[in-house]
Amino acid sequence: MNETQHVSSQFDEDLSLLRTHVLQMGGLVETQVSAAIDAYTTGEISSVKTIVDTDRKVNELEKAIDDDCAHIIAKRQPAASDLRLVLGISKIVTDLERAGDEAKKIAKGVRRIYESGHLPSQFGVGIRHLAEAALTMVRQALDAFARLDTAQATSVIRADSDVDTEFKSIIRQLITHMMEDPRTITTAIDIISIARAIERIGDHAKNVSEQVVFIVDGRDIRHTGKEAIK
Amino acid sequence: MLGWKLLFHIGNFSRLEVWSRQPKADSSLDGRGEWGSVFARIYRHEKDMATQIVRREEEVATLIAAGQALTDGVVLLDENYQIIFCNTTAEMQLGLVIHSDRGQPIINLVRQPEFVDYLQAGDFSRPLTMRFERNEDRVLSIHVLPYSDSRRLMQVKDVTQTDRLDRMRRDFVANVSHELRTPLTVLSGFLETLQEFEVDRDERSRYLALMSEQSSRMLSIVQDLLTLSSIESAPPPDTEPVDMISLLDKLRRDAEALSAGRHSIVVESDGQGDLRGSEPELVSAFTNLVANAVRYTPAGGTIRLSWKAGLQGAEFAVQDTGIGIDSKHIPRLTERFYRVDRGRSRDAGGTGLGLAIVKHSLSRHQAQLEIKSTPGVGSRFAAKFPASRVAGIQ
User: Fold this and answer.
1) Is A147 close to B116, i.e. CB distance below 8 A?
2) Minimal CA separation from A16 to chain B, in Å
3) A42–B contact, CB cutoff 8 A
4) Under an 8 A CB cutoff, do B327 and A24 touch?
5) Cα–Cα dist B89/B109, whole Å
6) Which residue on chain A is closest to B102 by alpha carbon?
7) What CA–CA distances, in Å, run from A197 to A36, A111, A209, B56?
8) Which residues of A touch B116 (CB under 8 A)?
9) B82 in contact with A at a CB cutoff of 8 Å?
10) Which end of chain A has fewer CB within 10 Å, C or N?
């Protein structure tokens, strides 16, 4: 009796440590995204190298957490909500890693634009707004995971369509610019790739939130449309 | 006899039994015979406990209220850095929600890597100062203090304002030295050349012209600095009305002289109302705005001066069709020596102090400087005066 109690509390500790590791990885990704956007608005491309280097750390964390998940499943054979937590986490880290990759893409795009001597400022406002919305989604998705708060998670899922709409309107704006003045095409294409990366970050935040709902309620709400989200 | 005694005990016992299901200090417990004193002791004990609990609760509530009253954020953490308590200031500063976050490791919610590294390194001899991304880049200074064995008290101070002032002071000293050194370097370079080498007459007069240009640059910087400090220490401006019709006329002539026919200058005014204040200060503020507009508007552009006064207050505005200013520079424009583009504004002949002087003179007249600008389209600088500074309006 005493033995099993000891084992299970050790197990709880393992799970709580696993969650903290995921959230630390998430914190790193948040910082990466906001640093990439700062580079875009300030034009300080010296930070691009730091962002690219830090991405390696994000990748390592993904591998380490995945290993931990496999260990826990093999050693503890968790059931029910514990199993859902471990399965959900292994999906969440994939999305976080990809969001980190998108941050790296943004940083590299920023470097290309500024190094070619252009200023993205005439498109700046829309992009920054889009980025802020996506960053908030990431932040709230991670908060929802930390607090296992499905209400917060569903509000992130809803916010994704706003980001998508805003992304489309930026693309339309850029197309008008390009038609008016073909010299802007090179810069505009780089900006489109940045906007696309930001939009993808929003998608990853949405996926994280869907996993939170799965972990808490056991419902799989991926690809089910708006009705399934209560 | 025995039966009667048994009944007596059972009666007392059942009374105790009923009371003990819901022991309360206000519903009394009385027993008969020798049971009486036993019951009385139990009852008194219960009553003491109840009053003690009430007192303790009051004490705890006072302590929590004291914690809430602190203007600094306070977070109590256990040995695993899990949240035990935090006050509302900390909730706002760090984005915590105490009723759901109690027991949560703090690094699950405050995830910024600098903070996580700081906690994990465990060296709390120095506070951590960080720009907190999730709260609009406020600058927070975080102290971690150990208390009762392995618990920790985290004190969070918002130092955004001090940080900004520090930066401005540093920038100011660096900028003054830089601004003065540049012309000095030119001067001393030419002086050396003139001392060491024989130069012909033409060359010599060219050097002298450049030298006097630089020395007058330095003079105008020093002049502007003196103006600024005299505005700062001067008594409040008087309330004599300043004739706006002649002031606008003077501004138009100044603008035309500075523009030398490259821009069209438009004045929009219905001639209503005058400003109460110090004429030299207002003239210098408005001239600065007009000169900036001329300087940063390409040839062929339009500069529009407008004056509108009413019962609510008055507005003097300068609108141009110039190069415009990116929105990220606007909040810092009135800092001393702040330049959007270093090379360009110096070529245009600015000292970097113009808008600082404008802002100071205006705020001495209780006026606000409102800046609106779109890059590539133009800018609008408006001075908004309160009704108390307006004269001649019925």
Assistant:
1) no
2) 9
3) yes
4) no
5) 16
6) A147
7) 11, 15, 19, 56
8) 24, 27
9) no
10) N
ipTM: 0.84
Assigned CATH for B162-233 = 1.10.287.130
Q: B326–A121: do the CB atoms touch at under 8 Å?
A: yes
For B241-391, the fitting CATH number among 3.30.565.10, 3.60.15.10, 3.30.70.1120, 3.40.50.450 is 3.30.565.10
> What is the rounded distance in angstroms from the CA atom of residue A141 to the CA atom of residue A137?
6
Question: Could you tell me if B375 lies within 8 Å of chain A, comparing CB atoms?
Answer: yes
Neighbours of B10 (CB within 10 A): 11
Q: Which of B95, B105, B375 sits opposite A20 (nearest CB)?
A: B105
Sheet-wide strand order for B264-269: B264-269, B302-310, B313-320, B378-386, B368-374
pLDDT tens-digit profile, chain A (230 residues) = 444 455 668 888 888 899 999 999 999 999 999 999 888 888 888 889 999 999 999 999 999 999 999 999 998 888 888 899 999 999 999 999 999 999 999 999 999 888 887 766 566 568 888 998 999 999 999 999 999 999 999 999 999 999 999 999 889 888 888 888 888 888 888 889 999 999 999 999 999 999 999 999 888 887 776 665 65
Inter-chain CB proximity B100 and A147 less than 8 Å: yes
Beta-bridged to residue B307, according to DSSP, are B269, B316
pTM comes to 0.68
How many whole angstroms separate alpha carbon A215 and alpha carbon B49? 44
